[in-house]
Amino acid sequence: MKLITVAGPPSSGKTSVILRLAESLGGKLGVVKFDCLTSFDKARYDAANVPVQVGFSGKFCPDHFFVNNVEGGVLWGLRRDLDYLVTESAGLCNRCSPHISGVLSVCVIDCLSGVHTPRKIGPMLKFADVVVVTKGDIVSQAEREVFSWSVKQANGDAKILFVNGITGQGAFMLGKVAESAHTITTLTDTRLRFTTPAAACAYCTGETRIGEGYQMGMMRHIEYDI
Amino acid sequence: MNNTDFYDLIYTVPLSELRERYPVAQDFFENLNIPPLDESQPLPDALMDVDAQWLDEFGITRQEIADQLASFLGTMTESEPARSIGCLTIIGGTDKNGAPEDITLDILPGSVVSIVGPTGSGKSRLLADIECLAQGDTPTARRVLIDGAAVPEDERFTLEGKLVAQLSQNMNFVMDLSVMEFLEMHARSRSIETDETVLRECFECANSLAGESFGSDTKVTQLSGGQSRALMIADCAFISQSPIVLIDEIENAGVDRRAAVAILAKREKIVLISTHDPLLALGADRRIVIKNGGIFRVIETSPREREAAAEFERIDRQLSDARAKLRSGERLE
Fold this sequence. Notes:
Chain A is an alpha/beta fold.
């Protein structure tokens, strides 16, 4: 089974891109969707007959939640006899990325989000092997080119592919990359490409009150000027 | 210069000199959000002053910063010579029913080919095949050759997005920039030396195509549909390096499409226009007729058809004259 991690900001078109990818690939593709509180994607995968599991991090840090559960996802994919397993997550909290060394990693962004977005969104783009740009059909050619350049600034090694989530144009080339992903049987002892955040403080355990007296554990403060 | 050369440079020259030689390095440090460094030393020495806690919190080591800067400079200074095409060849595959297309079509720079056929007949599929340089591996099994040869697999990826410029009615500008700033930004991203005359030429060309003129300090988002289309076309002709331009059904209002196509052809582009408009279809040297997902036939525009096109053009001019008169409050008498 080949594993692919897909990350991208909310509403950038991850689900559409994955569905188009599923269409363009010969083998059986399944998805583990990582989300925080709600997700509306299961119905879309069901409608397309793509096996899907949804996991909600709820009160837990979505980054840590991903790492704790991705291995179980691999076992699920193997039990389901999948050819391709895709993990879909909303880039976790933007500070992190779900990308794993030796596993094909894809970042999905849309070119309506502003030309500097690629430089702002951090590790999920910076450590991706492929950056898929969506919604290119509604902006000018010039803006697509400037956008590509901006992606290159943030990640000069990534392949940049324009995929139209509605018509599927470009998904063919993404399929070609997916075919080249490594076959895996386990993730044990593989490594994340970027660290997850340190988080062990009162707010991790459900504290909601604001004030110095409630802050306990590891924390960091802004040095405001006078 | 390759990454190793940049690596040597990063280790030997003071940071101030490196920045002076490669102003784009500024973007790297901005992206990294690193505290100010001692510019009189080479980067690795300057980095010794950076707080270890900062490095830890941003999840990066000093070594990685130097590595990433070398790779960044390698990528950003890569000159991208325009991939010139002497000939684009489309070798037929099969239609939706598996019937062979039985066709080989050579298209040379400066020539215009239109694509006609009902909605849903497979015009977009053909444009997609060209865009990904199909090698018999797409559903149509078509092959697309450049200068008579198949493009190697790895080059297909590096060329992706650079070979083909696309224009359609649905495209809009979303950046909050003036026309001139916009052109400058595009030129910069294409690593073209910001040559004032090229930008000026491009701007004037856009204005000559637009029904209503606009200033260089107008915001691109405030342009009318016709003005936007005119600017996009001029930009494709003068700044975009892509040798192939695919035009998908652009409307007539506010932009002189025939002049636009002529300008693109004159700039030695290969122009493919998907259209339902007789003026545009007949304005091309040849037209590809798509039926049932396949190329049904390729028709050379005949002298009689050219005459008809000239007549349509006359009617079209009449219509636009009438439009202009009505707009300025005149009577049609």
